Amino acid sequence: MSLVSPVSRLYRHDIQFSYKFIINSEDIQRRKIMTMHMIHVYALVSILPLALCVIKDVVYIVDRSGSIQERHFDEAVEFIYNVTEFLTIDEQNLKVSVMTFSSDNRLDIAFDSYTNKTELLQKINNLKGTITNGNTQTGMAINYTQSTILTTGKGARSGAEVAVIVMTDGQSSGYPKPETEADNLRADDADVFSLGIGSALSASNAELKGIASDPDSYYLLYVSSFVYLCNLVPDLVPKLETNIAATLLSDCPKDPVVAEMDYTSTHQELSTAEATRHPEQQTTDAVTEMVQNTSLVLAPVDPNFGSSAVIWDQSIAAFITTTALLFLKNILN
């Protein structure tokens, strides 16, 4: 027969019930807070694709003057094809237009002349076999790009970012000056890349620098021959779409000529540090610093939940801060 009185059993039962109630209450509170965190994360993940999505119109201005052999022109077309294969091509991301020039201008692929990436790649491939002749009227081609191609009538999108890649094997002839026309593009917030090919530009590249946006170390590209253009695919792709990494083609021959390019600014003054860092890297550094400075502030923690909750909240705060900054960056741009 048990010697524990009914009163003692009742008292012990009350204590156990009270203890379970306290534990369950803390657990419920913890679950509520964690649920709210997950709701915040879900909401941010939902808008993250919009934050990372960049609507950009890309125009290639390709030299087809008489100094370029047709097989070399085909290699330039192959380069554009290889770059485009890595890009996200649709109305919510990138669209590509291609024009060729010599003594005249010709719009070969307009922004609205295809409906998907497959069609675009086919149109690019069809440019092989183009007859090359005439002079190198680079300034006229850049002017034509701004006045005709980058218009809604040719499928350019209002409010889209703009990147223009000028590909040439020699100095321009005649007027207007390509540097002046490139400045006009920049006045409309376009990023202008100059891509020089061959020995005619390796020693004297002042015109290439004048065409390229600053810093020249980022926007000026060079190879010693058309066959080496494939080496530039991994360099150009992330500059057009920052979240895409391209790999070097396995059969791409290495350029034996190391061009000693002088990247001194031809436009606004830049510090040495700025000239050697990509604009995207400067943005990334700024975001990282802001996350480090704000993650603790954005992490309200119940002290009863221990150190694991602190780590969880800091990671959530970092994610929230980074996503918000990316979202704001795209809105402001």
Automatic annotation (TrEMBL):
Coiled-coil regions listed: none
Any one Pfam family match given in the protein's UniProt record, by short name: VWA
UniProtKB keywords: Membrane, Transmembrane, Transmembrane helix
Keyword Transmembrane helix on entry: yes
Keyword Chloroplast in record: no
PANTHER family: COLLAGEN ALPHA, VWFA DOMAIN-CONTAINING PROTEIN
Protein name: VWFA domain-containing protein
The organism of origin for this protein: Mytilus edulis
